[in-house]
Specification:
It is a single chain. With about 210 residues, the protein is of the alpha/beta class. The protein has a domain of about 130 residues: 3-Layer(aba) Sandwich (Rossmann fold). It has an eight-stranded mixed β-sheet, sandwiched between helices.
Length: about 210
């Protein structure tokens, strides 16, 4: 009975409160002030993170780069240097900038689906494959049901899912383990943690200028 209960409690979809969540090891974000507010001290592994944006280019990629670089390298948290799959990015990634952050370009895969349905399918397949360290999806059509599919696929493939969504998704339900709002304000870049499994909502200013180096 104890073994069965312990196995059940290891399921990341079960919320165990702040004290228990503190025992989980997150993926370090590279931004110390952010990690202080994330259960496990970093991005939630094998789960869906949603980033809501007023417009692209607010600093969302800079926010993710330290962790993505770490995952792409064989000497990082991923033992073999996993694939970084970019699905339907609204721009062409700039290789020199990725190299400057330390991303292994040989592990970057860009997918350009014909429509939103294909994009979601590609994201699910990549996440569940077990070969992707992280899957980044840009989507204006993500629903509560599709976010649940991404969450389940991330768990199945032990991969990190990141979905970029517009502000109008703020009122929609989501199965994401972590939900962030990124805004450009007069005080600089404002990051709000809207939902964090095992954590609390908080607003941080200029966190992406506070790197670990």
């Amino acid at each position: 009975m104890d073994d069965a209960l312990e196995k059940l409690l290891q399921n990341p979809r079960i919320w165990r409160g702040q004290a228990a969540a503190a025992g989980w090891q997150g993926l370090p974000s590279g931004y110390p002030r952010l990690d202080e507010h994330l259960p496990g001290g970093g991005w939630p592994r094998h789960a869906l993170t949603e980033i809501l944006l007023e417009h692209y280019g607010t600093g969302e990629l800079k926010l993710l780069m330290p962790a993505l670089a770490r995952l792409s390298r064989a000497d990082g948290e991923a033992d073999t240097g996993g694939w970084l799959v970019w699905i339907a990015p609204p721009f062409q990634p700039y290789p020199p900038a990725l190299l400057q952050w330390g991303v292994d370009l040989s592990r970057v895969l860009i997918v350009r689906p014909r429509n939103a349905t294909e994009a979601l399918w590609a994201a699910e397949q990549a996440l569940a494959s077990g070969t992707a360290a992280a899957v980044l999806l840009w989507s204006d059509a993500l629903s509560d049901a599709s976010s649940r599919r991404l969450q389940l696929a991330a768990e199945q493939g032990a991969s990190w899912a990141i979905a970029f969504r517009p502000l109008n998704a703020l009122s929609q339900a989501s199965a994401a383990a972590l939900r962030l709002l990124l805004l450009a304000s007069r005080r600089g870049t404002e990051l709000r943690i809207l939902k964090s499994r095992g954590g609390r909502p908080v607003t941080l200013h200029d966190v992406i200028t506070d790197t670990a180096g």
